[in-house]
Amino acid sequence: KIKTSDGPKKPGKSVIYANKRVRRLLLQVKSKKAIKWKDVPDTFTVKVNGKVLTVKTARKGEDGNVRPVIVRPEHKSDVAAYIKRGALSDQYTGEIAGQAHQLGATVIVGKVNRAVADLNRGTQHMTGLDSLDSGAQEKAISEYRAQKAEALRHARRISADSRSLAPYLHVALHGKKDYEQSRPNDSDIEIGSVNGRSCDKETRDWFASRLISELAVRNIRIDGRAPIVIRDKRLKGDPTKVAGPMAHGKKYKTLQIEVSSHLRKNHGEAIAAILVKLLQEFSDEVGSQEEPQGIQKATSDVAIDVASPESEPKDASGEKAQSPDLAEDQTSSESVEKPQKFRLKVREQFKSQVGKVSISKATADKIGATPGCFISISANDRQIEIAEVHVPEKLRNDVILLDAKSREFLGLKAAEESDFQVSVY
């Protein structure tokens, strides 16, 4: 959402205020190449519809909130069109979701731009780093989880304690760039399960095998070749993809499906039909067989979700597809053990372990954590719900290693000592 300002805090005649995500998009359009996060400057210029505009870091608007983008009214339409050119990774996913909805799938659609709130990340993602409106990420994730719980209730597959009563397959549909031979481990479609943590590998492999078969049956080709389908190589899925199984038990399975731009644009209807067919097979046919290729018997319904589509899904009448009414969020992450309290000193995380939380072996043993598992940590009334654990051999018992983003989210500084609550999933 682009905020216009013509009041006392309006930008200069040739200035745009933008958060880091939007600055990256603007820079990618300008340079016509992918830009790494670390290479995004605070200030640069872009030429938008013949006008040279200076892009600066995000700032507060008249309402006191930091906005993803603030422009003068006369620049809004031009800047919006320019940004959209750099944000096409999920283009056509909305149409695919709409077609899947018409075919009977439960569909959850993220209608907020990922520059404001990213449903593919946790509540702590980018919050407080000049990237989001205050509370936008937390609110979006809470609503998203409520929708997933509502889908389970609608399918009558949820117990009183929010556990999934039968295997339930949830597909998170994403867009990716087209295949490039020079890019290591690239593909046209990638199926991610966070290395078997959000969905067992047997189900993942069954889904991949059936997907490849259905693509062949429909004779879907790209430049004369069959689409390349891989599993858990480049786009394995963010650790937050395990939130469903954590909240609802191992019978709740989540697969992230990344589909190339070419397939979404030229074969979207076929992709929707294939996804729904496989989900229905999981729900019906798989449940009628005796232990087919390691997959549990299943009698559950299925769901597809799409984050930030270019267009909203429509039903057969052309109206917007209706999502279930929001229910009270019953899917907050559940820990196997109650949180334990520790007084720990914060240190800088190793560069090779950014995104993870490092704790000592003694601390890990006390909470029952093992390297690579997921924990929840909280401090200063803020919580990182899902973080992967790293256990260095010689880390002191009173130390915790956090990267810069995690420290800022928790309101902590390196070398600061603080009270933590830590629990393992």
Biggest β-sheet description: 6 strands, mixed
Helix proportion:
25-40%
The span between the termini is 36 Å
The gyration radius over C-alpha positions equals 22 Å
| CATH topological fold name of the largest domain | Aminopeptidase
Give the spatial strand order of the biggest sheet: 6-11-7-10-8-9
Q: Give the helix/strand class.
A: alpha/beta
Helix-strand pattern: EEHEEEHHEHEEHEHEHEEEHEEEHE
- Give the CATH level 1 class of the largest domain: Alpha Beta
Shape: globular
Question: How many H/I helical runs?
Answer: 9
Number of domains: 3
- Corresponding CATH architecture of the largest domain: 3-Layer(aba) Sandwich
What does it look like?
The structure is a single chain. This protein is an alpha/beta fold and 425 residues long. It has 3 domains: 2-85, no CATH class; 93-306, 3-Layer(aba) Sandwich (Aminopeptidase); 340-424, Beta Barrel (Barwin-like endoglucanases), CATH 2.40.40.20. Helices cover 26% and strands 23% of the residues. The chain is built from 9 helices and 17 strands. The chain has helices at 20-31, 76-85, 93-102, 136-154, 201-217, 243-248, 261-283, 361-367, 404-410; strands at 2-4, 15-18, 44-48, 51-57, 69-71, 106-109, 168-176, 189-192, 229-231, 252-260, 302-306, 340-348, 356-359, 374-379, 382-390, 399-402, 417-424. Strands 6-11-7-10-8-9 form a 6-stranded mixed β-sheet, sandwiched between helices. A 6-stranded mixed β-barrel has the order 12-16-13-15-14-17. Strand 8 (189-192), helix 5 and strand 9 (229-231) form a beta-alpha-beta unit. Helix 1 packs across helix 2 (76-85), helix 3 packs parallel to helix 7 (261-283) and helix 5 crosses helix 7. The radius of gyration is 22 Å and the shape is globular. Residues 127-134, 287-302 and 307-336 have low confidence and may be disordered.
